Amino acid sequence: MREKWVHILVVCCFAALFYLNSFNNFFVWNDWPLIIENFLVHDWSNLPEIFTSAFWKPLIGEPSQIYRPVVLLSFMADYALWHLNPWGYHLTNISLHVANSILAYFLMRVYVSPITALMGAVLFAAHPIHTEAVTYISGRGDLLMSLFLLSGTLAFLQSKKRRSRLLYLVSLPLFFLAALAKETAVIFPLLLFAADITAFPSSWQSQRSRTFTRLVGPLVVLGIYYLLRKFLVVMTLPAYSFAAPDFFDHLFLTLKAIPFYLALLLFPLNLHFLHPLGVSSPLDFQPALAVLLLAGAGWGLRHAMRSSNQAVAFALLWYLSGMLPLVHFTRFNFSLLESWFYLPSLGFFLLVAWALSWLQFWSASRIHLWLTLLIAVLLGGLTFSRNSDWKDDLQISLHTNAASPDDPVSLRLLGHAYFRRGKTPEAEKAFQKAISSSPGDPRLHENLGRLYGFLGKGEAALAGYQRMLALRPQDPYSYWRMARFYLEKRDFAEAEKYFAEAARRFPYSSELRNDLAQVYYIQGKFDEARSELEAALRISPYSPILRANFQRLLDRGRSGK
């Protein structure tokens, strides 16, 4: 018992100490629309709407298939405790990472000795590839998803070991919460299969049908999750299509990602926010290397299962199952993010710890443990240094752009960072360079239009918004942006036209209907304003802003003014 508590303390130290300097970091990038500018998380009365809204609901009608109410709920709790003090949000992220590191230790103990589990857990806790998930406040989705998946997996395994129906039932809502934290948690049935078949190989051989029935509950949870997304939550499909690669390009991009992540885990010296995969070619060596790695992993898995090496079998199955979401991400040719490997990396670190544990057979001392702790300290030093890159949005934007100077996403992020600091010439230069690199990206034209609007260059701003609308004529957000431009110019007739069109294309936004009601009210169209506010309140019945506006309209009617 004492050894277990010592191990937990060591894991906590490695998971927390190397992130202490992140407490000085400010909000970055998506932290602004998700926390600072997101009215939903600023008041507990909006709690019901969080569970019926897409993750990016504050962006009026923006295409969104992301549903993460647990993340927004955590931001709401943080705002209630800390308001807009980033220190508290970082405390939450670090606490979640500490909890995940402890859970990783206990999960590894199912397959290896306590010392080997400690070795794997400290490597997981200290590795710098996790800085994006831990130091970036908006990366909390991976932390929460891992928290519920790891705890649910442990409860699931313990329910079989102890023959406890209660633990089995406890595991099911944990899997549901994991899916509500991040969509990639839908692979949890595969992770459970990997954990169960390697923890209890004999039962899979002797009682296969009965063991398979244990997976019925998690599959039911998965079905409930999909029904919830389909019927309860308002999602919007993209009004424009991504330049998705064809089958072979998609295959090559996916294969290129496999050795890339492995290289980052082995040699974490080139860490930055965006990792563009670039154009694939059959002549690239990465896909061929990926095929060799997969073949080697398949051979190793087969050998481990035959020799009853539970640790290696579980590590490989967990790692390979955790990589499956890459198939989805590479379909859209997204730049790879380091946070995507937060959960799958557990399998890699267990495999490394298992390999290092063989050193104990060549030395009577615990050289394998001390060597692992030394490696973890060195990795922690890289983590500590990497945290400073996330100091604020300008710092991380400059770091990202230095690694990918011509990438339009990095240039857009850099332009935003300059804009927030009032460095408008630098922001304009960044946006213009991004447009020259990707002229068909409507967001870049919108960003440049907003900058010109701030500078009082009305015609240039309008040209940017019109170009955005031309590129995304089906997108309600484009019409909302045009309407906001005319509203600021006090051209209420034009503002009404574009707000009405945006509301027609996306009738599920209370903010959009409130804007339209405002324009009606200004023009003296009080019946129309009342109708829009009533529609807005049906969508967001607990919004204090909508209630105040509606009461103001009623008071005006009573006074006759």
DSSP, total strands:
0
Low-pLDDT stretches are: 236-241
State the helicity in percent bands: 55-70%
Which percent band covers the strand fraction? under 5%
Describe this structure in words.
The protein is 69% helix and 0% strand. It has 29 helices and no strands. Helix 15 runs antiparallel to helix 16. The radius of gyration is 26 Å and the shape is globular.
Essential attributes:
561 residues; mainly alpha; 29 helices; 0% strand; globular
Annotate the secondary structure layout.
Elements: H1 2-16, H2 31-36, H3 47-50, H4 69-82, H5 86-109, H6 114-126, H7 131-135, H8 140-161, H9 165-181, H10 188-199, H11 201-206, H12 208-213, H13 216-231, H14 247-266, H15 285-306, H16 310-322, H17 325-329, H18 345-357, H19 367-387, H20 393-403, H21 408-420, H22 424-437, H23 442-454, H24 458-471, H25 476-488, H26 492-505, H27 510-522, H28 526-539, H29 544-559
Helix pairs in contact: 1-5, 1-6, 4-5, 5-6, 5-8, 6-18, 6-19, 8-9, 8-10, 9-13, 10-16, 14-15, 15-16, 16-18, 20-21, 21-22, 22-23, 23-24, 24-25, 25-26, 26-27, 27-28, 28-29
